[in-house]
Amino acid sequence: MTFQEDNIYIEKIKKGDTSAFASLVEKHKDMVFTIIVKIVKKSEDAEEIAQDVFLKVFEKLESFRGDARFSTWLYRIAYNAAISKTRKRRLEVEALDDFTISNYSVDEVKEELESIDAEEQQVLLKEAMENLSDDDYLIVKLFYLEESSVKDISTVTGLSQANVKVKLHRIRKKLYCNMKDSMAKVVENIVNL
Amino acid sequence: MNQDEHIEDLFLKALIKNDGLKTPSIDFTKNIMDKIPSGKVVVEESSRFVGKNLTMFIFFLVGIINLVILYFVWPYLSVWLPENSILAFMLENANSFLSQHLSQLFERSATISMLLIIGLGLFIILGRDETMDSLHKLYKKLSV
Predict the structure, then answer these.
(1) For residue B143, how many C-alpha atoms fall within 13 Å in the half-sphere facing its CB?
(2) B45 contacts in A (CB within 8 Å)?
(3) How confident is the model over A65-95, as pLDDT tens digits?
(4) Which SS3 state, helix, strand or coil, does residue B42 take?
(5) What ipTM score was computed for the predicted complex, to two decimals?
(6) What pLDDT is attached to residue A15?
(7) Four-CA torsion A42, A44, A50, A55, nearest 10 degrees
(8) Chain B residues lying within 8 Å of A125, measured CB to CB
(9) Is the CB of A9 inside 8 Å of chain B's CB atoms?
(10) Nearest-by-CA chain B residue for A27
(11) Mutation to test the B interface, candidates A1, A14, A18, A23, most B Cβ within 10 Å
């Protein structure tokens, strides 16, 4: 997924080829929808807001100069739209002194996870992701799935880059801990049977 | 290991990538595109007559107007100018230079236009391949 590709579509749209906008929507709709649905919760509302976001982006495309990545600009608009719809407060600044979530060593958990099959790994991750806060979920998706940089996530969420790094560090640990807990529960259930 | 190395986790990245994203309804894109007027130009293409182009256009326009005025006014103007003045000398020379070179330019243009018309006519009558063959043969003869 290259941002140069986005710029090609944008140039086409600016020249009057509105059909090129469909390609942009197709490419980014899932991430935009994920951002919004995580904040507003209701799928129907999220879809409506996501549509409004894309229409707003189309209208404002003229003002997009291409200094930043289009996706970052789009996700920021989506994030702001969802926040203002729910009147939810923005992300709070994370204290920079990191603390230990649990005594689990991430490397040990990772080793254990690698020993189980891929399907089970995926189930454990899904469960762990569901236990994350909405904001943590979005940050982790932006970083690992969208491969957004810390700087881009900082632009989308309004957090400082240092705070994004701290959050990512903690979320990663939280995910491994959640997965370790889920694994322990599965083992316990098997033993009890 | 610093914090950046901690967050770059390929194992976790692979798992999260496989987990994917939440998806909107199937007709999501269509619903948006229906609300966008087709062929609407978001940004007007910049006009050719702006900036440098406009400056050049005005420059040439003013130049042509000056030449036209000079052409018509010269017979009257020359009466008022002292015969041996530098200005009279310059205007006289400019006038003769322009009339001489412009007429040459027009003659050359007319010759080129005639050749183009003949070439185009041959091209239409003989067809592309035959014309190209003839030109090729002619080129060979000339090069020998």
Answers:
(1) 6
(2) 15
(3) 777 889 999 999 999 999 888 865 555 544 4
(4) coil
(5) 0.75
(6) 84
(7) -150
(8) 15-16, 18-19
(9) no
(10) B29
(11) A18
